[in-house]
Write a structure and sequence with these properties.
CATH class: Alpha Beta
CATH topology: Alpha-Beta Plaits
Distance between the termini: 37 Å
Strand content: 25-35%
Structural class: alpha+beta
Helix content: 40-55%
Order of helices and strands: EHHEEHHEEH
Number of domains: 1
Radius of gyration: 13 Å
Strand order of the largest sheet: 2-3-1-4-5
Length: 103
């Protein structure tokens, strides 16, 4: 299975987004559904096992969640996996991108 999972500091996300914790998760889950992912549980999303898996995950992670300031400031752990093996630490990628942007 391909997908992504993360842990949010829910209180921080709620405060920064001006939404309740439930609204934060509803917001993120709606983005997952919009990008054609399966919501396994809050913070865990799987691709559907078709030819669009990689692009749907990329859109969800890089085009959607990366662009939300309160989300990137609130995420504690974030991993992407392919065939059930963790292959990317999204936090590391996020920090690398932020370092490059500040140069």
């Amino acid at each position: 299975m391909n997908g992504t999972k993360f842990e949010l500091d829910e209180q921080k996300a709620s405060k920064l987004s001006s939404m309740s914790v439930n609204e934060v998760w509803d917001f993120v889950n709606k983005i997952a559904i919009k990008t054609d992912l399966i919501v396994v549980k809050n913070g865990e999303y799987h691709a559907k096992g078709n030819s669009k898996d990689q692009s749907n995950l990329a859109i969800f992670i890089f085009d959607e969640l990366f662009e939300i300031d309160w989300f990137t400031k609130s995420v504690k752990t974030w991993e992407q996996f392919y065939d059930d093996e963790i292959v990317e630490d999204i936090i590391f990628i996020l920090q690398s991108n932020m370092a490059e942007s500040s140069k």
